[in-house]
Amino acid sequence: MRKIISFMHISLDGFVAGPNGEMNWIKVDEEIFDYVGKRIGEGDTALYGRVTYEMMESYWPTAGDKPDASKHDIEHAKWYNQARKVVLSKTMKDTDLTNTKVISDNLANEIHKLKQSSNGESADILVFGSPTATHALIQENLLDGYWLFVNPVILGQGIPLFTGIKDKVNLKLLTTHRFGCGVTELNYIVERQ
Q1: How many angstroms separate the CA atoms of 178 and 14, rounded?
Q2: What is the mean pLDDT of the chain?
Q3: Whole-number pLDDT of residue 185
Q4: What's the structural domain count of the chain?
Q5: Domain Bacterial bifunctional deaminase-reductase C-terminal, which positions (predicted)?
């Protein structure tokens, strides 16, 4: 069965965005893009909340076609255009969306079906950013892991990653990686009883 993994940049004090959704504190560079690109390239499915999906959809379909496109833009745009996309939203409809499924109710049931539908793949399904969608998955105990990129900053306030947790969640650390820009990757899986 496939796993649902939250892929998130996070501040040292646990925030994924500033109070108004600011993400200008996130450090990314070619080293991080190359590292992340290898793992993303192994999968075929991305899960988003509506806001993140709309942001991604406004940029990635044509990002690789621009004359000044970076290596990362070309590679990720190619992956994005081929990937299956799943959006958690109460307001979106999936009519006329290319290779995109919208889940608006029965979250636990739909996520279990998604985990079992492999399309020949066994790779993780990555939740990109999307704090509201991640919170919904956390509250239903549907996440199987956290792929966190801890940025060397303390925000003091903002949108927290961990909210709505009812019971203790035990994690097992799989890998860590320190990047030259000061970001540290922490890759955890949830240890189920």
Answers
A1: 18
A2: 91
A3: 97
A4: 1
A5: 2-183
For residue 102, the surrounding DSSP H or E stretch is: strand 100-103
Token duo for residue 37: 């690109």
Cβ neighbours of residue 112 closer than 8 Å, sequence gap 6 or more: none
C-beta of residue 100 within 8 angstroms of C-beta of residue 52: no
Sequence-separated (6 or more) residues with CB below 8 Å from residue 70: none
What range does the domain containing 33 cover?
Answer: 4-190
Q: Is the pTM of this model over 0.85?
A: yes
Query: How confident is the model over 65-80, as a mean pLDDT?
Result: 92
The gap between the terminal CA atoms of the chain, to the nearest Å, is: 17
Inter-residue contact 72 to 35 (CB < 8 Å): no
By three-state DSSP, how is residue 20 classified? coil
DSSP 81: H
CATH code, 174 = 3.40.430.10
SS3 assignment, position 126: strand
DSSP 2: -
Residue 152 near residue 124 (C-beta atoms within 8 A): no
79 burial (CB, 10 Å; 0-12 / 13-18 / 19+) is middle
Strands 125-128 and 4-11: parallel
From the list 117, 118, 138, 116, the residue with the least C-alpha distance to 127 is 138
